[in-house]
Amino acid sequence: MGAIHDFIHGLPKCELHLHIEGTLEPELKFALAARNGLELPYRDAAEMKAAYAFHDLTSFLKIYYEGMAVLIGEQDFYDLSFAYLAKARSQNVLYAEIFFDPQAHTGRGVAFATVITGLRRAQLDAERVLGIRSALIMCFLRDWSAEYAMATLLESLPYKEWIIGVGLDSDERDNPPVKFRAVFARARAEGYLLTMHCDVNQTDSLEHIRQCIDDIGVARIDHGVNVLEDPALCAQVLERKLPLTVCPISNSFVTNSSQFAAIGKMLDAGMGVTLNSDDPAYFGGYISENFLLVQRELDLDGARLKQLCANAFEAAWLSRATRDAYLARLADYRG
Questions:
Q1: Counting beta carbons within 10 angstroms of the beta carbon of residue 101, is it exposed (0 to 12), middle (13 to 18) or buried (19 or more)?
Q2: CATH class of 3-329
Q3: Cα dihedral sign for 277, 282, 285, 290?
Q4: Where are the domains of the chain?
Q5: pLDDT tens for each residue of the chain, 335 residues long
Q6: What is the rounded CA–CA span in Å between residue 290 and residue 263?
Q7: Less Cβ around it within 10 Å: N or C end of the chain?
């Protein structure tokens, strides 16, 4: 399929912005529905995919949450996670930090322990069998109450050795970062690392990015491309070396722009921009497809593609020794 395709496929990669529920492919959805005695309103996977007609964040989230109804038992969460890790490893992802949304499950009666135990078993098996390492980031749903987020944080504490950090996702409209200031302060005190979504072209995007940096004190920002509209915020991102986890294919679905130009500007400015797949089962592209798309649009050479991978390993919540080992593999890569 071409030299650049082969080069990208073989790149040692790190993924930092991936919602495990967003990897629920239609075929697995049907299998889990059958396992759990559920009827889906589609004849087959093709008809289900055809129904993925969303034009903004809100319309996407409606379909996204509806699809989770098939996730009920521990084995369901295991199968979901292992399938993603196998797919990622096939694209030479060496390490992934995976978002999961416990409230989307506990809110419909699935126990927190069921969710995280299934995910954890898959992580351990994937590392042993496939050689891919991973970590979990627990996200709070920002369109639900801060009190429910705090209760979820407290519920996570018996499992905190399995969770590296916390994030904030779902519908950003009228749900600013500071709504969860106390939750994230408690999470930091418990030893969790912090990140937050600042989705693209939302109302008050710049103020939300500012709150993430100044009021919450995140270690990185998910999406966050609107930072380029404010030189002062750009200066803060550069000064604090805050990575940004950008998801070009998903952006093209929910904002009508894949943000290619923004990615190029971030690279040129020396920002820690990274490429990720977000919710690939719904947007039709895993991490390699995102790299291929950006390379084609920006005409990136091998050095720039490797820089994007290096940015991700630098941004990952890893020990210095582990990070350096991954970076050495990347530096040695010739394609």
A1: buried
A2: alpha beta
A3: negative
A4: 3-329
A5: 589 999 999 999 999 999 999 999 999 999 999 999 999 999 999 999 988 987 788 888 888 898 999 999 999 999 999 999 999 999 999 999 999 999 999 999 999 999 999 999 999 999 999 999 999 999 999 999 999 999 999 999 999 999 999 999 999 999 999 999 999 999 999 999 999 999 999 999 999 999 999 999 999 999 999 999 999 999 999 999 999 999 999 988 777 667 899 999 999 999 999 999 999 999 999 999 999 999 999 999 999 999 999 999 999 999 999 999 999 999 999 98
A6: 12
A7: N
